[in-house]
Amino acid sequence: MQSTGLQACAKHYIGNEQETQRNPSGGPNTAVFGGVPGPTIEAVSSNIDDRTMHEAYLWPFQNAVHSGVSAVMCSYNRINGSYGCQNSKTLNGLLKEELGFQGSYVMSDWAATHSGYPVALQAAEAGLDMDMPGGISFFSASPSFFGGNITASVNNGSLPVERVDDMCRRIMTPYFRLGQNTNYPPIDASSGGLNFFPVTNYLYNFTEGPANVDVRDDHAALIRELGAAGIVMLKNVNNTLPLKTPANVGVFGNDAPDISVGLYLDGDPDLLNIGYDQGVLPVGGGSGTGRMTYVVAPLDAIKTKVFSYNSKALVQYVTNNTEIIHNKIFGAMINPTPPEVCLVFLKTWATEGYDRPSLQVDWNGSAVVETVAASCPNTVVITNSGGLNVLPFANNPNVTAILAAHYPGQEVGNSIVDILWGAVNPSGKLPYTIALQESDYSFAPITNSSALLKTTDPNAWQSDFEERLLIDYRHFDYFNESVQYEFGYGLSYTTFSMSTATVTRVASGGSISAAPANNTVAPGGNPALWDVLYTVSVSVSNTGSVAGATVPQLYLGLPQPANEDYTPVKVLRGFQKVLLAPGESQTVTFSLTRRDISYWDTFAQQWIIGSSSIGVLAGFSSRDILSTTSFSPLTGASAYGASSGSASSPSSSTAGGYGAPSPSPSTAGGYSAPVSSPASSTVGGYGAPSPSPQAGYGAGGQGGDKGGPWHWASGENGASHWGSPPAAVRQ
After folding, report:
1. What CA–CA distance (Å, rounded) separates 93 from 81?
2. Nearest Cα to 584, choosing from 494, 491, 492?
3. What is the tens place of the pLDDT at every residue in 354-406?
4. Portion of the chain with pLDDT greater than 90, in percent
5. Which fold does the domain 2-182 belong to in CATH?
6. Residue 350 to residues 19, 97, 285, 414: CA-CA distances in angstroms?
7. In what helix (H) or strand (E) does residue 52 lie, and over which residues does it extend?
8. In whole angstroms, what is the distance from residue 398 CA to residue 400 CA?
9. CATH for the stretch 220-424
10. Polar residues composition bias: which ranges (predicted)?
């Protein structure tokens, strides 16, 4: 992104893992978010332990800082009691100091700077450089928590002018570094009236360029390509797909037709609350939406495709879900019946955030599938969700194929048709696990309850991350639980094989030390953490009859450190998409840095390489493991147990030793799992509620990060900072 002169911003920092109560409710500023004023109930606090923070939630932000990202946006929620935009530990201690986030700035999410005295001093000292959108309200630059309050704080000596200089340098450095002062497009004159701030409230007369500049170029082709690349084929019985030349095609479901409510999903506030029934959902809403210039609906693209090979073909359709469910459409509306293939398009509308109630609507999508499949033995489902909504029909024998299309963009219809008729071979892989039932996700619940919704306790919303490192596939693999479709899963129209993995030491010199050298911090942290110590290579072959892409994935089984929380059975450390012609092979090499093979030692406050061997597991999903070996960084490489094979059916296999539930402690993949569950165990600190002593970030309540040096604190509603707890409570 930044090669074009555009500033990239990594967000939302950090622990922003649920929408419910992400902002405070009640209080004098509730109207900013459309709520009713009342007692201030603080935003949810994500309570995260030290090791989990480093190995899970801080990890991608460390990647971004190492890549030179221009800005980081702090989040609405609290982290261990302190708001994300005024939490000195996360902003100063972790981001700016430990990760070396220099020459770049921290901006707030819109209205994520919260009340308290004095806010300007508190947030600025905690590391916030830019308060957005400037005013307390979305619509006016004043009053502001920054602005004149910054000036007053400097004048009365409570805020050092050096800190203000630092804020200014951080904000302006990317501007000059990326050449935005000399060669950057001017502001489009049409954009002013489209933003939250009315032009009349501007504090600066910007120099505008021409209005409605068309910068689309050939982007439509790329959008179409990327839309198809992100589609995951979950099911394909008896090679139902790709379609050949069916002459009678049925199209069903409310996600098939064109949009009837306009091309800007934030243009009507009601859409955020209730969604829309008729029309495809090509993109998300809210801050992630875009202003589309057109949409190719699936129904239109299907007609174009079918008539391109048979001008006398039938394309029959009913897109009203209620009509499909409650009336006998087959024989009356759909005739001849059944069609050769029935394409069912489903969507799920979900909205949450600010003070709006949670909403998820699928317009009875599973009932639509059930109704169509009862009369059509060749039913193909295309869903924009791909999550739990596929479970009711995943094992329906008349549902012969399922595509998780997600949000393909404005070329949605063309992207899906490219997959359905085989112009593009599906290569998308699931970036999440689809479990067998909703309760399987209960190990990491969303914090919410009727009691919390009615609470008068300002600090009642506490989300304790008791699952620690065991999120998504790490949980299901650790406890050897069966799933419907695993992390990294996705089918293809061809087949692939993988050779034995080869581990090669790259680091020169003698023995490798457990801890990195004590170097001066650079962007990304200690530069030694980014030293490539090993590479893992596999050869991937297309053993089928058509060209296709696949994504070889590298997982590591890191050793369990002593006196630490449970370590996942395996963690993803590399993936790469490769396009192969039939019979073609290609070697894929994954680089392993020191950080990749280390764990965060909470007592040493350092990344440490464990003393035991590290397992290497390569395959095409988290459970389709085709090659395993190991190496021992501290004692020299010692590969053993290497194996390789061809791809099997991930959804039904136990490749790599996973997939079958077991009543006894599992040793899946060669790594021993303890008998008890983290939720009920006290090993490594599991099961301790948030009021109990724990090493944490920030301060409790509204007080900000003002408790002095980071220390172990217990029994107080104040500062409770990171650090090593006393030996007596380490367990």
Report:
1. 16
2. 494
3. 444 556 788 899 999 999 999 999 999 999 876 778 999 999 999 999 999 99
4. 67
5. TIM Barrel (3.20.20)
6. 11, 38, 10, 24
7. helix 50-52
8. 6
9. 3.40.50.1700
10. 17-28
Closest CA relative to residue 276, chosen from 254, 253, 291: 254
Question: What amino acid positions are annotated as catalytic residues?
Answer: 109
pLDDT at 276: 87
Distance (Å, rounded) from C-alpha 167 to C-alpha 588?
A: 43
Rounded Cα–Cα distance for residues 248 and 38 (Å): 60
- Quick one: pLDDT band at residue 728, thresholds 50, 70, 90? very low
What is the distance between the alpha carbons of residues 110 and 118, in angstroms, rounded to a whole number? 19
For 598-727, strand residue ranges (E) read: 598-601, 606-609, 614-619, 625-631, 645-646
- Please give the Cα distance from 318 to 645 (Å, whole number): 45
Listed in order, strand segments (DSSP E) in 169-223 are none
CATH 3.40.50.1700 in the chain is located at 220-424
| Token couple for 423 | 């112009």
Does the domain spanning 495-631 belong to CATH 2.60.20.10?
no
Every domain of the chain with CATH number 2.60.40.10 lies at 495-631
Local confidence band at 28 (pLDDT 50, 70, 90 cut-offs): low
Q: Give the C-alpha separation, 615 to 668, whole Å.
A: 12
Residue-by-residue DSSP string for 3-45: GGTPPPEEEEETT----TT-S-BSSTTGGGGT----S-BPPPE
Instruction: Judge whether 67 and 101 are in contact, CB under 8 Å.
Output: no
Spatial CA neighbour of 317 closest among 343, 279, 293? 343
Give residue 359's pLDDT: 64
Length of the chain: 731
Q: Could you count the other beta carbons within 10 Å of the beta carbon of residue 7? A: 16
Q: For residues 533 and 359, which has the higher predicted lDDT (pLDDT)?
A: 533
